[in-house]
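[SOLVED] Need 3D model of a two-part complex

Original post:
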Amino acid sequence: MEIQFRLNGKQVAAEVAGDSILLDVLRKLGCVSVKCGCETTNCGLCTVWINNKTRLSCSVLAAGVDGQEVTTLEGLQEEAAEFGRFLAEEGAEQCGFCSPGFIMSVLAMVRELDNPTIGEMKEYLAGNLCRCTGYMGQLRAIQKYMKAKRMQFQAAGEEVQA
Amino acid sequence: MRYINRGVPKVDYKALVTGKGVYVNDLAPSGCLVVKVLRSPHAHALIEDINLNRAKAVPGIEAIFTYKDCPDKRFTLAGQTYPEPSPYDRLILDKRVRFVGDPVAIVAGENEEAVKKALKLIKVKYEVLEPVLDFHQAKDNTILIHPEDNWKSLFPVGADNQRNLCAHEECEEGDVEAVLASCDYIVDEVYHTKANQQAMMETFRAYSYKDTYGRLNIVSSTQVPFHVRRILATALDIPKSKVRVIKPRIGGGFGAKQTAVMEMYPAFVTWMTGKPAKMIFTREESMIASSPRHEMEVHVRIGANKEGIIKAIDVYTLSNTGAFGEHGPTTVGLSGHKSIPLYGKAEAFRFVYDVVYTNTMSAGAYRGYGATQGCFAVESAVTELAEKMGMDPVKLREMNLLKEGQIMPAYYNEINNSCALDRCLAKAKEMIGWEEKYPAKDCGNGKVRGIGVAMTMQGSGISALDTASVSIKVNDDGFYTLMVGATDMGTGCDTILSQIAAECLDCSMDEIVVHGVDTDVSPYDCGSYASSTTYVTGMAVVKTCEILREKISAKGAKYLGCDAEDVEFDGEKVTNLKTGESISRAEIGNNVMCNNEDALSASEAFSSPISPPPFMVGMAEVEVDKETGEVELMDYVAVVDCGTLVNPNLARVQAEGGIAQGIGMALYEDVVYNEKGKNYSNSFMQYKIPTRLDVGNIRVDFESSYEPTGPFGAKSIGEIVINTPSPAIANAVSNAVGVRIRELPITAEKVFWGIQEKSK
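Solution:
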């Protein structure tokens, strides 16, 4: 069947079978940031956004996104690079294979949660496995990134007031 | 110093964090044949007959191969320097299958659906044999796992296929029995560590194609490209000159990819069909037919006098190599040679081991490589000794630990050149608040907090064996190309080696281009394993830079028309010290591209006669629920001596990541077989690696010694970091509830039954 959906802000069409998985369809459409790490919905590597909510693309039938809006890291390049810089400054991207799915979750988290505690952050990101870093460096990067964002925001606010 | 001891971001980070297609499956051309294997449902069987008729008739199937199509010359998949210590016990496909999951047929087709359908239609008739599943019963069992005549061992490791023996060795110094007999306190216990999966996020994968010259090209997620070239040539029985191996970015290795687990399947398909082929292991395949840690049972006898001086250590290790002997003869050695030397006052030691074949999946290399298993055993035993003596286990260690300058009899009599183990212990003690928290504190809510300690050492490369070569070229405008054969697997060695080069050449890192591994182009390096890259390849970079600086000076002098003795190269320009006249590196780089007869490049190799150990102390604070036995890790403190830190950020993440894997090994990870040898731990549903909610707080610090033989004083860090969590956590649990767990993982169930047993 043919499905049509918005992928990273652009209208696309794809020919899919009834049992096609979104993960495979996205990779075929060139979104190779989307990785498969487990096949059992445990690892979070295939995390994408559907209508701006994080979903595991390995557990979504492609047919189900007809008419929906899908975002992958390919559609968030600037933000990925910005947060990625913080991650790299901790050395916490390491092999990088889980980075796209993890960054998709982080960028969703900063939109959804207002001033989250460390516990809330760990809870939100618990579905994103990483075997290289031990998670501590990722947490340091998130905290520094959020602090930098707050300062940017404050600076912008002060400018408006001035 | 501009680049050493600086936490610069990795040179490849931008591509990684923006999700660029830099891994095997991203790079594979469309149109590759999809390759999968049919796997044996039996732990031990002989193939009587295979009927392929219906499978071959499936539309889109290109080829199906069985053992009848494969060369009958045995080899090993272990990525080790030739002649490999691992026995030659493999064929691409064999008539005998030796574990549940052992490949029976290779199927290649145009798409996944066709291949999956064909796999179901292959009819195999097996003569089912009784398997050997218990590794205690393997040695001298009447059932032989490798009875074949062409099994061979290239190296004197004590292997004997007629006894299911993959290796055996004994070594001793002093009279262990006599010294133990004279001891006031003795601990005599057996410790059991299980197989563990490396569980790197990118599973095993490779694709292959024939190039313009008819050669076999393999793009593989591997730690050992040069070994893969040799292994494939041997397996396919073709000249090595016909094989080229390329390593792109790889999604983690941790030793798993020091075994050529699956490259031979797509390679064989391409060689036979001439067509490009690709194989991506599923997570299930990566769990049931891969290269996990060797299961080991370690019997420790350790004795001390009443003053608390440890006088003798006796270690016997039984290691389970599974169906094949990859890394079997070598991992086991570290269980003694990297645990016994930590106690510098012992007068005698003995270390004996057996490595046996069983009908379980073949083991392989996993970070720590046997040292991890030995560390759990010996560090548990030392703490049990302290408990027996009523002494603080940190104090017992302070009294006995190895010091800088000592000879290490159990570590091949190497001299301990650089060692801050005492400072590591002191700092860790302070960081966790040992004095206040030892041994335990009842929280009053049914939970008790306890703390535990462990020490460890590893090596830096394999002494007098590991070989790394490096080439550096000067290009137009004077930029450098750094060619290495060491394999960055996310650890950051491309960055660290660039840092070392930039430091040696007095230039910016931006002026150094580093190239990933291509066996046609890269200088030889045995690969990234055995904690070798920073130390061994790092020294090759230092040596190469020294020679290149001389060559640049000589070239500069020539262009300036003066003697080489009269010039100085400061990294940017060559200056005639007599006249003050100078020529820039950029000009030299451009000049050598015109009317020049000697290329401006250098290539040097390095191998070390010694393998200087890094040291580390880990301390764990756990909270144990007395009702359920559940263990929660609250705090983990580690202090590492890896010599000079080339890149403190990358070193810290190595430590944190290794500790998290060690925590998984200690508390959660277990490979479980049923009574017929089927592996139940075949997904992340069953095999639980830690999430960010399971690792508590990991805090790492460093106490650096200076290793005189390493690059800028550096030693290794990659492996040592995984060793301490198992014993430190077991020791903390013992302090909390008085239950000693001697078999990993430390599950709530085991602790619960231990508490019940104690209260009887």
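Edit: The beta strands of chain A are 2-7, 10-15, 47-50, 53-56, 69-71.
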